[in-house]
Amino acid sequence: MNTPSKSKPYFLLSFLPAVAYWLLESYTTLEIALIGGILIGIIEMILEKKFTGHVHSLSKVNIGLIVFLGIVSLIAKEGVWFRLQPTLTGIGLCAFLSYKKFKGHSVLLDMIKDMGQVPPLPEFVYKVMEWHLTLFLLAFAFFMAKVAIYDSTSVWLFWKTAGFYMAFGGFMIVEMFYLRLILRKGKS
Fold it and tell me: Distance between CA 61 and CA 2 in Å, rounded?
């Protein structure tokens, strides 16, 4: 029996609307590219439901943005609106993390505790890491706005997919060194 927790990883599906849009824009009209991106986004949500048993809230928001921005792009006859989806998602995540911080909560800490685990690091470390993550996401959101407006769809697709993971990997390496430093100072 295949349970949702043992299902195959389908996290790469989030790239499908962007890849479809890029391919269709390269070989067809803007309208067909936008409609293709919107339809693939909806299919992605259906597949997520089929393979995982539910649709994550972030997936719902992203697909909603894809559909909304796709429609705006169709009306405006300008694909830049569709390409602003990562920017708006990043700003939304920053707003959510900032709201939780303002309320005195840490999303990372809450997730660890919700899983019934004891946090392996002091609580302040998670709050510092989450604050830095918020700043990284905000900076990347503004960067993606610049890419969406001034660069080609190919460049946008790179930064929306592999480029984001490369930037996030670099951020995490720097963050790990920083956290080790503050943990050492805390033990002194």
Answer: 27
Cα atoms in the 13 Å half-sphere on the side-chain side of 127 = 10
Domain ranges of the chain: 1-82, 84-188
Q: Which of 68, 61, 8, 12 is nearest to 37 (CA)?
A: 68
Instruction: Enter the tokens of residue 20.
Output: 């479809």
* Cβ neighbours of 137 (radius 10 Å): 20
**pLDDT tens readout for residues 91-148:** 999 999 999 889 888 888 888 888 888 888 888 888 899 999 999 999 999 999 999 9
Cβ neighbour number for residue 157 with a 10 Å cutoff:
20
Chain centre distance of CA 134: 12
Residues 6+ apart with CB under 8 A from 115: none
CB 139 within 8 A of CB 86: no
Q: Which stretch, 28-37, 58-67, 88-97, 101-110, has highest mean pLDDT?
A: 88-97
